[in-house]
Amino acid sequence: MKEIYLDNAATTPISQSVYEEMMDKYKNVYGNASTLYGLGREAHTLMENSREVIAKSINADVDDIIFTSGGTEGDNTAIVQSALARQSLGKHIITTAIEHEAVLKPLEYLEGLGFEVTYLPVDEHGNMSIDDFKAALRDDTILVTIMSGNNEVGTVMPIHEIGEILADHQAWFHTDAVQAYGLKDIDVQHDHIDLLSTSAHKINGPKMIGFLYKRNGINFTSFVKGGDQETKRRAGTENVPAIAGFARAVADITPEVKQERQAKYFEFKQYLVEQLTARGIDFEINGELNPDGLNHVFNIWLKDISTYVMQTNLDLAGIAVSGGSACTAGSIEPSHVLTAMFGEDSPRISESIRISFGIENTKEDLDRLVDAIDKTVQRLKRKEA
C-alpha cells in the first residue's frame, strides 16, 4: 500500500534536482569555504553564487543574506539579538498570539529578562487587526515580529501594511517567513522588512539549512560565537552542499511554478470540501477557504472525533497528517493557534487535523484520505449505536 504524505507544512521530501545537486557537491566540492587554496575558493564561489540566487528571491542585497541552520536559529537570532542590542531605546516588543514556538519561546526568554511583550489577538479566521497593531505600537517599541503566514491554519498576515506603518518608527520589523517562502511573493524592500527568517526543508530542500535576511544597517552581535564565517555574523563552517541544495530548491520555484502550486493546492482544498460534504461528514474549516492564503495548509474540525483517534486511524491507513495539537513528551497539548482563534473551551482544539499538501500529492491521494476519514467516522458511529 502506497504511503500518502500530507504533512508538508511540517517538512517536505527533498526534490530530485536538489538531491542530485547536493550529491554532486558532497563528492566534488568538499573544501572549507574559509580557506584560501583552490578547493576552498571553489566552495566559497559556490556559496556566494547560491547566496545571490537566494537574495534575488526576496529582492534583497546579496550581502544581507546570512546562512543559518534553519528557521528556529533565524527566529532566535533576529529576536533575541535585536532586543539585547536595542534595550537602551525601550523594552517593548509586539507579536501575535499565533506565532510559531520558535518565536514565542525566545520572547518568553526575553520576558524573563524584563522585556514587555504585547501578544496581539486574532479573530476566528486567524486574522490580526491593523487597528489593534496601531493601538499597541508605542514610542518604546523596539521590535515587531509577526509571521508572514501561519503554519497551522494558513492565514496570511498583513506584512506590507505593518511594514509601511513601521517605516518611520524606531522598531525593527522581523517576519518568520518559514511557511510563506516559496508560495507567496516576498519583497523585503517593498514591504519594509528589516529581518526575515526561513528554512530550506519547507520547499523541498535539505534540513538544517536556512537563511536570515538582515537589512544593511541592522546591527547586532553574532548569536553563534566562534569563527568569523558569514563576515563575522554567524560562526561555524558553512554547509556548502546544503547551501547549494537550498539555492537549487529556490531556483526551481520560478514565479510561474509558485503560481501553479498555489492554484493547485487551492483546488485540492475545494475538492476536499466537496468530497467530505458529499460523504455527509460533519466538519468545519479552521481558518478560511481563501485563495490568497497559504493554500498548502488545510485545517479542519471533525466534530466529535478526537484528534488522536483520527490521526491514529489515518496512520494505520498509511496516511500522514498532523494533529491540530502538538505532541510533546508523549502527551497531547492543545494547539495555541486554535486556542487563540476559538478559545480554550472550544472542542475544535482537540478535534482538528491539519492536512498540508506538497508537490508530490495528487487527487488520488485525497480520495484515499476521504475514504479513510469516512471509514473512521462510520466505525465510530457504529460503536456509539
UniProtKB/TrEMBL annotation:
Could you tell me which InterPro entries the record lists for this protein? Aminotrans_V_dom, Cysteine_dSase, PyrdxlP-dep_Trfase, PyrdxlP-dep_Trfase_major, PyrdxlP-dep_Trfase_small
GO molecular function (one):
metal ion binding
Q: Which cofactor does it need?
A: pyridoxal 5'-phosphate
Where is each Aminotransferase class V domain found?
Answer: 4-369
Entry keyword set = Iron, Iron-sulfur, Metal-binding, Pyridoxal phosphate, Transferase
- Record's family? Belongs to the class-V pyridoxal-phosphate-dependent aminotransferase family. NifS/IscS subfamily.
The entry's protein name is Cysteine desulfurase
Specify the species. Answer: Lentilactobacillus senioris DSM 24302 = JCM 17472
